[in-house]
Amino acid sequence: MARIAQIFDTTLRDGEQAPGCSMNLQEKLEVARRLEKLGVDVMEAGFPAASPGDLEAVKTIAGIIKDCSVAGLCRSLEKDIDAGREALMNAASPRIHIFLATSPIHMEYKLKMTPEQVIERAVSAVAYAKKFCGDVEFSAEDASRSDPDFLCKVFGAVINAGATVVNVPDTVGYAMPDEFAKLIGYVKENTPNMDRARLSVHCHNDLGLGVANTLAAAAAGADQLECTVNGIGERAGNASLEEIVMGLKVRKDFYGIDTRIDTAQIYSTSRLVSQVTGVKVQPNKAVVGENAFAHEAGIHQHGVMANRATYEIMTPESVGIPKNRMVLGKHSGRHAFEDRLKDMGYTVEKETLDAVFMEFKVLADKKKVVSDRDIEALVMGAASSVPETYKLDRWVVNSGSALTATSTIRLQHKDGSFHEKVAVGDGPIDAAFKAIDQITGKDPDLESYELGAITGGEDAQGETTVKISWDGRFWNGRGISTDVVESSIKAYIAAINAMEWELSATDVAKGKREEAMKGV
Ligand SMILES: CC(=O)SCCNC(=O)CCNC(=O)[C@H](O)C(C)(C)COP(=O)(O)OP(=O)(O)OC[C@H]1O[C@@H](n2cnc3c(N)ncnc32)[C@H](O)[C@@H]1OP(=O)(O)O
Ligand SMILES: CC(C)C(=O)C(=O)O
Predict the structure, then answer these.
(1) Which of 60, 146, 377, 424 is buried deepest, with most CB atoms within 10 A?
(2) Whole-angstrom distance, CA of residue 517 vs CA of residue 182
(3) What is the distance in A from the centroid of ligand 2 to the CA of 233?
(4) Boundaries of domain holding 426
(5) ipTM of the complex
(6) pTM tops 0.90, yes or no
């Protein structure tokens, strides 16, 4: 009988550590709900001690997610574990995840601790966490560059202190598959009481081997696999969830391992993560890339026409890539539209459905055929929008080779008032953004600006993604329109709204904490 490997998803923690991948609370919640639907066994929702915002996010997710464990990452420090405890107090199935480095280089230069001190600290941290949480994972950071005997000694000690999972991270993506499999086998054989804990792996992708190492470790006996959707994460990223899961599924004959993932949810989850982080999936990305199931060469097309299995080792449907279906256009009705949303993995409230359907009709008037990508952009716009402090009312932008770009922008504030400003800039987008800054009184840095077409064709919609920063924090905004200046303006306003919302939420949380402190 096949064994089951648990899938531990860390998109919301390690994934979020990737430059520019930070998500606001609303976005994290959306991703968390989708991960639950996907069927992950554990989701790591954040690092509660990192910031009040991260603590609130983990707390909110922990209060909502019921079908899988929710984990929070903590250093081996009581204050971090206390933050983890607070963040997870409402979780149906909480897991405190503690880490401490075990490699010579990390112990000497980063932690400035001796190996004996590391064992002592790891044990005391696990024992402390165990007082409030039955499920405690311990990760030996940089395990793949640690002495294997020392690693087994640390793991044996933390299992004795109550750890339920011990994790072997290839923190810097240094391991080679055969070598990593050997390490897993060694740890399994030589860790005292290993039968009392689950053995996990967490592989990074610095040499492009994150998935290969994870699969090799699974074959060698690891029974929890840590990964992220689309492989996002620190530096070159983490092992990608979709590649691990489909590797095990497609080659079940080889691995004999199952997961609980509903693979038909993979594609929509990948799209959601790409949309909320603003990080595009490369076209040739395995499993979820635009070209993953495309056949261009004649010999391949001929083979696929005779039998898809000649050149496809899995079907697009098995990962939730929809088949070509009814064309949606301006004559389509609500039933067909709702059906398509369901097929694409979206369950939306009636109110959102009404709003998106209206937008769909407006778009269908401009475009002959509304594609799945167009629909996805509409749903994401409606579902992920943070409260709108500002809404675009109207705009005019003049630009050309012989005149300075000028913009007039009118925004409506949530209190109902209208605000209009005129600005000049280096080009139409700069002029528009400057007018918006004048209205909002904020002057964030524009970190990145990306413009693309959602689909091909002359009537394609423009999709703009902007990332802004202020005081070391980042916010994304997305805008779509058949006019690229308008999509840019919408994206910038969306990012400003996310910033306004997060800053005011942090102020409220800070106020509450200060209030509570007065009573101590
Ligand atoms: C491999 C990984 O992915 S680990 C997770 C990495 N993720 C993150 O770092 C994101 C969240 N981090 C943060 O927000 C901040 O780094 C914080 C809040 C945790 C700490 O911030 P600061 O107090 O300013 O410390 P800073 O980040 O500069 O340095 C880290 C400190 O933690 C110590 N430390 C590092 N790992 C551990 C650990 N596992 N257990 C205990 N202490 C640790 C370091 O030795 C250093 O200690 P020092 O301040 O006494 O020199
Ligand atoms: C905290 C651990 C699991 C980690 O992220 C790493 O070592 O890469």
Answers:
(1) 146
(2) 51
(3) 10
(4) 390-507
(5) 0.98
(6) no
